[in-house]
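Task: sequence design from structure.
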């Protein structure tokens, strides 16, 4: 018999459904966020950027094509809990290696289903993301527990998700270093597909160590958490700017590059998470549908000299990408590797390749 399980939010709201996956415990606490993606649940489960979060899928049926290890974006899930309306007990796919319940149990990830995920999403949309607790304790809940929930702060997530040693992916072309702050595997696949050799290095790698590899370019990866919690990285990023090495930033990497140049970031009410975020290129007027997963954004009005706004979100006008007019560098808030998600912006990897090729020409733009 399935265990009745409740999601308690810090404002006192709760949603009771049924548990699946691993059983929750007192530590099943984190920020409750929603993603609007209609496919790619395996990539969502294994995206390191969800570290420490309770992830709600707005699409009602999840798990219909089972668990496919070849589609994972990292070695294991980093999210705290997984919340769906309904999960498929009988997946159908010739590549499937099992179902969600068994996979979550094996990975120690609690799940909750049979709740009104639409009502939960509307609550988060209207009031902003909140801390939540997944528990088998039945309501009601006292103020002491709610106060503890409101005061919860997750540990810095980047050190929890970065690889612990460098990993080389050989190829025939020039070397690109991927600075791993929680990198999705498809970032590396996209670089390999363009002929680059790739060296993925941990977040705690120093700029001198990166430059000692004589890379043709450096890609600063996606990752979880508040960018300002990684202040020790900013001087290292500035050293790469000073060295004029071609750089591309994605998501957290984009935010860290901007912070290193003196910009500021801000927390969004409920973030951008899903595979349907429209983004406009201010230079070409082109609108692309993008995959995104972030709760913070670079403040457009804080961009300093030498940093030009290039992409904006069509829904809320927030900064979605910049180019550096005094360095061979650019960065985007969205995910051009889009796994899962639309492939509209995969061309940015080609632009990075062109930037690397032209980096010896003084003043060559990267966008």
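Answer:
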């Amino acid at each position: 018999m399935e265990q009745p399980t409740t999601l308690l939010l810090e404002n006192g709201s709760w949603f009771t459904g049924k548990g699946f996956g691993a059983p929750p415990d007192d530590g099943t606490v984190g920020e409750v966020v929603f993603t609007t993606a209609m496919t790619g649940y395996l990539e969502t489960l294994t995206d390191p950027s969800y570290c420490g979060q309770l992830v709600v899928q707005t699409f009602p049926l999840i798990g219909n094509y089972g668990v496919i290890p070849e589609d994972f974006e990292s070695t294991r899930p980093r999210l705290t809990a997984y919340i769906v309306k309904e999960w498929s007990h009988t997946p159908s796919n010739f590549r499937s290696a099992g179902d969600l319940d068994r996979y979550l149990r094996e990975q120690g990830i609690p799940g909750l289903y049979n709740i009104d995920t639409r009502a939960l999403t509307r609550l988060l949309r209207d009031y902003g993301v909140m801390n939540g607790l997944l528990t088998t304790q039945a309501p009601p809940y006292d103020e002491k527990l709610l106060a503890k929930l409101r005061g919860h702060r997750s540990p810095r997530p980047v050190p929890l998700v970065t690889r612990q040693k460098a990993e080389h992916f050989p190829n025939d072309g020039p070397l690109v270093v991927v600075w791993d702050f929680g990198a999705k595997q498809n970032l590396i696949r996209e670089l390999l597909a363009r002929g680059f050799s790739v060296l993925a290095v941990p977040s705690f790698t120093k700029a001198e160590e990166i430059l000692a590899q004589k890379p043709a370019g450096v890609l600063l990866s996606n990752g979880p958490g508040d960018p300002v919690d990684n202040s020790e990285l900013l001087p290292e990023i500035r050293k790469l700017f000073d060295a004029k090495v071609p750089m591309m930033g994605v998501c957290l990497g984009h935010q860290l590059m901007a912070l290193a140049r003196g910009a500021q970031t801000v927390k969004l009410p409920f973030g951008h998470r899903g595979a349907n975020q429209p983004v406009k290129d201010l230079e070409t007027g082109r609108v692309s549908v993008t995959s995104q997963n972030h709760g913070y954004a670079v403040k457009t009005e804080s961009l300093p000299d030498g940093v030009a706004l290039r992409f904006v979100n069509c829904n809320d006008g927030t900064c979605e990408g910049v180019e550096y007019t005094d360095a061979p560098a650019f960065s985007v808030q969205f995910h051009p590797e889009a796994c899962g998600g639309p492939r509209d912006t995969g061309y940015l990897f080609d632009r990075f390749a062109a930037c690397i090729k032209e980096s010896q020409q003084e003043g060559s733009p990267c966008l």
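The mean pLDDT is 96.
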